[in-house]
Design a protein that fits this description.
The complex is a heterodimer of chains A (363) and B (315). Chain A is of the alpha+beta class. Chain A is built from 17 helices and five strands. The model of chain A has no long low-confidence stretch (mean pLDDT 92). The chains are: A alpha+beta (363), B mainly alpha (315).
Chain lengths: 363, 315
């Protein structure tokens, strides 16, 4: 079996390329879909081969339940097999924490913030002592993480749009506003140029870090090696990102594609991927294997990354995503970034976001 | 010159056709063959997509899902959509802010470059062309770094002089400059918005903006100005090229977010179209935006035609 790999581009380009292919172009036998794009494709599961017909129903219990649920259509089709997840932690600078009189040991640091309120309070302590920002921005480091901990987020279990009535969303949004009002944010949007530079220069001391972000920190700030450590995320659990492998309905060789998926994404192989590349397995049977639990990362002061990130994934409960997840979260994040960066009035931010969402999705 | 080509001057000369051998059929058809590639390509990549856009605009069209006929509902929604009017406003302000100063400066520069007093004239003339061949993406990245709020070169200088850092992203013209179509690659402020999507135009901060920022990095091509003056500005390819460059640039600038700014401060019509079509897979609505854009271009081109033909007569 020969596998030809094509890299399309960034996540957005990949999703667009896939859409074009599904809409009538030449489809590959196998496609990788990012978790954030998945809800859009789940609306029309008919575009994909139901993996259950190829044997996925035999192995679906190998994977974390809520991750698998994201790729299972309402009508029961299994659209994708999860390749990795983005378990959450908080990456923090031990040198900056020490200079501000905060503890540096990762267990003591984790104990500082069992809740988001205490996380913000710790931030205020840091900012008062150091005069510098504590986190990069409130939108992704506070709001996005807090909202992802809800068992019900923008959509209810039966698929209704509930972002405007769900207290989890409003409370998380208010936490974001609170972090901004506390003055602990560096006003640097995630993945912007300033954000990368800020990471290297210590403009902020902590950042919500999913497992895959460790690589970004390493490459954005190579000279900070050994100055970082990883604590648990407030609330104890969280996920940001991840990917799925799927087979388009019109694929020429669905059987061969499934043979590849079932072999390469088996629990044994996923553990191997973790050892080789650090990609976090979606198979809980690996979560207490010594290879994973004992894995430490010298760049992050020897933090047991495998253990910290898998614990964060296990704490989550299945929740439902919907077609307009991206549109909803974009408006909410924009409203928070507007308050933080542009000085838009905080009191009106929620209404701005809700109004924007209603314009965008008509609900 | 032209006079020698008028039929009058040919009087007395034996008509060329008299001695020409009778054309074979394929010879008469050959010219059509020579010009065919353009028309075929135009049909496939120009006319058909254009007409198909009008068709798709009448549907609620999900490229990988249902396609429902909705009549003019997309246009009704568009008329009531604040995002559309915001994008329209941004597009026009970019056009005005970029065109007026560009033409003025270009005229002055063209005079200077043409001056007999100029030393190293070839060097300066070639230097003017450099931005034209620089990729938009590369320019955007460089300017993004120059204008960065915290770590940009300009703010490093400003900070070094003892002043507070200027947040170029939140200054008034930044929004429009982020995607303004200065001659290809000239960069200019393109990227003032680029490092972050914060480009809200706010009156309160307008006075804070140092005047020189408007000129920084601006390289205007006399050649381009001449083109513009000749009324070629709305030449179809030119528009296409600009739209693509504009889109490419705004995307780069807005950190990958399709709203370009937390409150869509720098979202242009083409970016709004892109957001709806390729971000949200709403092809029908995206097409309706495309049709609106088409109508606007036709109107502007017509006005431009009227103006330039009147000016031409006077000259």
């Amino acid at each position: 079996m020969t596998v030809k790999l094509t890299e399309v581009g960034n996540a957005q380009e990949t999703a667009q390329g896939l859409t074009t292919a599904l809409a009538g172009g030449k489809v590959p036998d196998l496609v990788l879909i990012q978790a954030g794009d998945l809800p859009k494709f789940m609306k029309n599961p008919g575009n994909f081969t139901d993996l259950a017909t190829l044997g996925a129903d035999q192995v679906e219990d190998d994977y974390v339940d809520w991750v698998m649920a994201q790729a299972t259509a309402k009508s029961g089709e299994i659209v994708g097999i999860p390749t990795d997840v983005g378990g959450m932690g908080v990456a923090y600078r031990t040198d900056l924490f020490a200079a501000a009189g905060l503890p540096t040991n990762r267990d003591e640091v984790s104990a500082l913030w069992p809740t988001w309120e205490e996380f913000i309070a710790t931030g205020q302590r840091y900012t008062q002592a150091s005069g510098n920002a504590f986190i990069d921005n409130a939108a992704t480091t506070v709001f996005l993480q807090a909202v992802s901990q809800g068992t019900e987020q923008y959509y209810s279990a039966d698929g209704e749009v509930v972002y405007d009535t769900n207290p989890v969303v409003k409370d998380s949004f208010d936490l974001g506003l609170k972090a901004i009002a506390a003055g602990i944010t560096a006003k640097l949007e995630s993945f912007s140029d300033g954000w990368n530079a800020g990471m290297a220069k210590g403009t902020f001391a902590a950042v919500a870090a999913p497992s895959w972000m460790l690589g970004s920190i390493r490459s954005a700030a190579p000279e900070t090696e050994g100055k970082w450590d990883i604590a648990t995320i407030p609330g104890g659990s969280g996920n940001w990102g991840g990917s799925y492998l799927a087979i388009p309905a019109r694929a020429a060789n669905p059987k061969a594609a499934w043979a590849y998926i079932s072999k390469m994404q088996s629990p044994e192989q996923q553990l191997q991927h973790f050892i080789e590349s650090g990609s976090l397995p979606t198979t809980p049977v690996n979560y207490d294997k010594p290879e994973l639990v004992d894995h430490t990362d010298p760049f992050f002061s020897g933090a047991p990354t495998g253990k910290i990130f898998t614990q964060a994934v296990l704490g989550l409960k299945p929740f439902l995503n919907g077609e307009y997840n991206t549109e909803i979260s974009t408006e909410l994040l924009n409203a928070l970034n507007g308050v933080e960066g542009d000085g838009a009035p905080a009191a009106a931010a929620w209404d701005t976001a809700v109004k924007g969402i209603k314009t965008a999705i008509g609900a | 010159m032209a006079a020698t080509l008028t039929p009058g001057t040919l009087k007395g000369v034996k008509p060329a056709t008299a001695t020409r051998p009778v054309e074979k059929r394929w010879e008469r058809l050959a010219p059509y063959g020579y010009v065919a590639p353009f028309y075929v390509l135009f049909l496939v990549f120009g006319l058909f997509p254009l007409l198909f856009t009008f068709y798709v605009a009448l549907f609620d069209w999900n490229p990988i899902g249902d396609k429902t006929f909705v009549g003019l509902a997309n246009f009704q929604q568009l008329a009531a959509d604040p995002r559309f009017w915001n994008a329209l406003k941004n597009t026009f302000s970019i056009w005005i802010i970029s065109t007026a100063p560009q033409l003025l400066i270009a005229l002055v520069l063209a005079q200077v470059l043409n001056s007999a007093l100029l030393r190293f004239a070839t060097f300066f003339r070639m230097a003017m062309l450099l931005p034209y061949i620089t990729s938009v993406a590369a320019t955007a990245i460089v300017f993004a770094q120059l204008f960065n709020r915290d770590f940009g070169l300009l703010n490093w200088v400003i900070g070094g002089l003892g002043f507070q850092h200027v947040d170029f992203m939140s200054t008034p013209l930044a929004a429009t400059s982020s995607s303004r179509p200065w001659s290809s690659g000239a960069g200019s402020g393109t990227t003032r918005c680029s490092t972050s999507p914060r480009c809200r135009p706010s009156r309160a901060t307008s006075t804070r903006r140092p005047p020189w920022t408007e000129r920084a990095g601006q390289a205007v091509l006399p050649h381009h100005a001449a083109l513009a003056a000749a009324g070629h500005r709305l030449h179809r390819h030119h528009v296409d090229h600009r739209r693509a460059a504009d889109l490419h640039r705004t995307l780069l600038l807005s950190n990958g977010t399709l709203t370009c700014g937390t409150a869509r401060q720098c979202q242009t019509l083409s970016l709004f179209l892109y957001e709806q079509g390729f971000g949200s897979f709403k092809f029908g609505y995206g097409s309706a935006i495309g049709v609106a854009l088409f109508a606007i271009i036709v109107v502007v081109a017509f006005i431009n035609f009227l103006l330039s033909s009147r000016l031409g007569k006077k000259g």
